[in-house]
Design goal:
The chain has 624 residues and is α+β, with helices and mostly antiparallel strands. It has 27 helices and 17 strands.
């Protein structure tokens, strides 16, 4: 895993100057690749590539980048891993194109030389973002993996020059450019808690979307397209006719193969283990693939409502894997708050960013690569909104909207904390019943399914535009999650936290084969009367007793609402009174103050909205 950056001036330039600018861009990404730095330039073409290396496969100098193809036509700066690179190497050899060197990057270059960029990408079982210069056609290609696991941002300047990099800080390091904050992107951020692709916080700077491919020639506008589209996959896939047992066996086999493939590395590999179904499934597959060698890592909290470390320990014990737990104190977590703007590069407000960063630091002290269970919820129906879509919405939609909204108002008028106090003593009550009831109220108040999705995934219920989506409610929600929330929030959170400490995180649930399988499963096999992710639960039950994992999902977060009233209260009040907030004009400061007063008094829970404002202010202050 690495950091990439570069520039394309579309005009001749002094090679030394190009190399200096590219090297400065690469230096801004040093945290992503501490094992080496490289830069390459073609002064006549006005193009330069930079690379920061985190050595994972082929630790020798032969794996250094930027790297040229054996024919000399292509030069690449590549961030990612190709898990099927050995099979591709054999296929290329059979085509009469042997690969020199042991790195997967060399395989990528020869695959492009053999089949072309667009035809090579669907052959990859990989996560990646890369910039590739075609010397013959004098074309720069930018590409991102199918799921959006690895990031890539780019912009076209007023004179037609192009800057690109793994993070925005690399673009700023190029010089000769003064970014401007995009108010519309900030508005989207305040709704979602993250900035949805293709937007970034800066006007005119774009994130390459998942499956994105850009062709930039010496003249004319860049040509953008998708080489992979998860919405199209979900819309066009016809569900297979499978029994529950057949579906569980198929998922179990596919995940086992994905984990086995993703264990390839020349450095130590471990896995995150929260104790939930997704991470437990990955660790179980890892334990079978590497008996006696699997090492799992867990973060624990003092608050039992957010702590799953004991559950994780029981699962690790049952699987016979080595298990390391870090108990994060409130003081340790609070101390990270001021670091978040630097780590996350642009405003980002998923509060689970704090435990994710703590977990990444713990894990990096032991291994260089970690497997994660991310993607399981989105693909296999693990969120409350998926259960609501599959089981409740068909019934709720028959109730007149005014009646639904009246009931929603009554539920929402009672703060979640009050619901918790009343309902927790009752049997079979969720850990945070108030949060569940408020989500139900959100759905009740929605005029249709798309509005329900928007309300459930934003802080103010503003509907965001989407492409054409599947008709089945559960498939629609899962596809929208995979096309947006998954990479904009979840994968961004994991990438920034892990690469801040030079830890490569791999996501076996999101291999192309796993994504195709997930959308081929009948919806009624994913969400049943006993809850979501039924197929994953059935598959995991082949290896673990159900009582170890059949429990309510806790969620990987921290009690942000309570902390804003407690240890973070002074910090929050200072941010809300910040001159930067008032002068930015990006937030209604008076409304933010009202939300703060209500939250601080315990009358309403505005934690999500307030955290978004606070992270924005902290980011503005960090740039001052």
């Amino acid at each position: 895993m690495c950091g990439i950056a570069g520039l394309f001036l579309r005009r001749p330039g002094a090679e030394d100057a190009l190399l200096a600018r590219a090297a400065a861009m690469g230096a801004a990404l040093a945290h992503r690749g501490p094992d080496g730095a490289g830069a390459w330039a073609d002064g006549e073409a006005g193009v330069a590539l930079a690379h920061r290396r985190l050595a994972i496969i082929d630790l020798s100098p032969g794996g250094a980048q930027p790297m040229a193809s054996s024919c000399g036509r292509y030069v690449v700066s590549y961030n990612g891993e190709i898990y099927n690179y050995r099979a591709l190497r054999a296929e290329l050899a059979a085509c009469g194109r042997p690969v020199q060197g042991e790195s997967d990057t060399a395989v990528l270059l020869e695959a492009v030389a053999q089949w072309g960029v667009a035809a090579a990408l669907p052959r990859l079982d990989a996560m990646f973002a890369f910039a590739l210069w075609d010397r013959a056609e004098r074309v720069l290609w930018l590409a991102r993996d199918h799921a959006g696991i690895k990031p890539l941002a780019w912009t076209v300047l007023a004179d037609g020059s192009v800057l690109f990099g793994s993070e925005l800080r690399a673009l700023e390091a190029a010089g000769g450019w003064s970014p401007e904050i995009d108010a519309e992107s900030v508005a989207a951020y305040l709704r979602h808690g993250c900035i949805p692709a293709p937007r970034t916080v800066f006007r005119g700077v774009r994130k390459l979307p998942p499956g994105g491919l850009v062709r930039i020639g010496m003249a004319g506008a860049p040509e953008e397209r998708r080489w992979f589209d998860v919405l199209a996959l979900a819309r066009e896939t016809v569900p297979a006719r499978l029994t529950p047992a057949e579906a569980a066996a198929a998922v179990d086999a596919a995940l086992a193969e994905s984990v086995r493939a993703q264990l390839v590395a020349d450095v130590p590999v471990g896995a995150f283990l929260s104790g939930g179904i997704d991470s437990s499934s990955v660790v179980a597959a890892m334990a079978r693939a590497s008996p006696g060698a699997a090492h799992a890592f867990t973060i624990g909290f003092d608050d039992p409502a957010y702590d799953e470390s004991e559950d994780a320990a029981r699962i690790a014990g049952a699987l016979g894997v080595r298990h390391t737990v870090l108990r994060a104190t409130e003081a340790e977590a609070v101390a990270l708050v001021d670091e978040l703007p630097r780590v996350y590069d642009e405003p980002f407000a998923d509060s689970s960013q704090i435990p994710t960063l703590l977990l990444a630091r713990l894990t990096r002290a032991h291994v260089t690569v970690a497997l994660s269970g991310d993607g399981g919820d989105e693909l296999f129906g693990g969120y409350r909104r998926h259960v609501l879509a599959a089981r409740l919405w068909p019934r709720l939609a028959r109730v007149p909207l005014p009646l639904r909204r009246a009931l929603a108002g009554a539920i929402g008028a009672v703060p979640p904390g009050w619901w918790d106090a009343v309902l927790r003593p009752l049997p079979r009550t969720p850990r945070r019943p108030g949060e569940t009831l408020h989500k139900l109220a959100t759905v009740l108040a929605s005029r249709d399914l798309d509005a329900a999705y928007a309300r459930l995934t934003t802080t103010d219920g503003v509907v965001s535009p989407h492409g054409e989506t599947p008709g089945d409610p559960l498939t629609r929600f899962r596809a929208l999650d995979a096309a947006g929330y998954l990479h904009d929030d979840v994968l961004t959170k994991v990438d920034r936290a892990s690469m801040n400490v030079a830890l490569e995180v791999r996501v076996p649930m999101l291999s192309p084969a796993m994504m195709r399988l997930a959308f081929s499963l009948p919806p009624d096999l994913l969400v049943r009367a006993d809850g979501g992710k039924a197929v994953l639960r059935d598959a995991l039950a082949r290896h673990l007793p159900r009582p170890l994992f059949e429990r309510e999902k806790t969620g990987f977060s921290f009690p942000v609402g309570a902390w804003l009233r407690g240890p973070l209260r002074g910090w929050a009040e200072d941010r809300l009174a910040s001159r930067r907030l008032r002068e930015s004009g990006l937030v209604d400061a008076a409304r933010a103050a009202r939300l703060w007063q209500e939250h601080r008094a315990g009358r309403r829970d505005h934690a999500a909205a307030l955290w978004a404002v606070l992270m924005l202010v902290a980011w503005l202050e960090a740039r001052a």
